[in-house]
């Protein structure tokens, strides 16, 4: 049997969950409960709240805590909850980390401070301060395309020595660097980009944190399930089936939050509008999303 080389501390199949709003743009906690329960029922082993997909830049600290409590109430212990707490300010991130712990999160997602572009020694000190602030395990979020700062492999290797830094959400697009850290540490590497799920898993990754899992959780989970069962051909088939939908949702000119919410709204699931400065997808874009979705999920892989 083929299996992932790295234990998955938060589960293997994680959804970067959207944050539902009502028609007025207010936080929809009932919708969040319903969507969380739906995602877990469809195969998500963990939910990442208040990340990029969760519109964290435009939700308040109080809304972030309320969202954690609502989702915990909904899913209980059937899924892990990882709370996005990363900001450009170390003090604010520490505050959000402590609030997330009190609200019932199982772990923290901490993105590199953005805009200020701290050097590697300052970046390392930032992550260590966050990890020291609570008893929760930490998933580092390496997405230099958005933050402007890479968490260099050598920095990752040093940070792996901290007892509470246990995982990485990897959007660095560097197979050599990621493979080097996986080989040298016990860090659980989660693919943060859907086209990277199978390649990263094959070199020792732990699973994925996915925006597309909001709309096709079963399809993406089937990639890692098939790989774990030793059926690499089926894993590849699932990977290939997902690619056109991944491209439409994540790489077609709109943020994944916008496209995922468009599909969820079309499916009658809780989502609602996006908050400005984001804007909703137009009807032509929605038609393309629906066509890609139908093609991806119309039949079981191998069926």
UniProtKB/TrEMBL annotation:
The active site is at residues 141, 169. PROSITE patterns: DHDPS_1, DHDPS_2. GO terms for molecular function: 4-hydroxy-tetrahydrodipicolinate synthase activity. NCBIfam families: dapA. This is 4-hydroxy-tetrahydrodipicolinate synthase. InterPro entries: Aldolase_TIM, DapA, DapA-like, Schiff_base-form_aldolases_AS, Schiff_base-form_aldolases_CS. Pyruvate binds at residues 53, 209. It comes from Streptomyces polyasparticus. Signal peptide: none annotated. Catalyzes the condensation of (S)-aspartate-beta-semialdehyde [(S)-ASA] and pyruvate to 4-hydroxy-tetrahydrodipicolinate (HTPA). The keyword Cytoplasm applies. Keywords: Amino-acid biosynthesis, Cytoplasm, Diaminopimelate biosynthesis, Lyase, Lysine biosynthesis, Schiff base. Belongs to the DapA family.
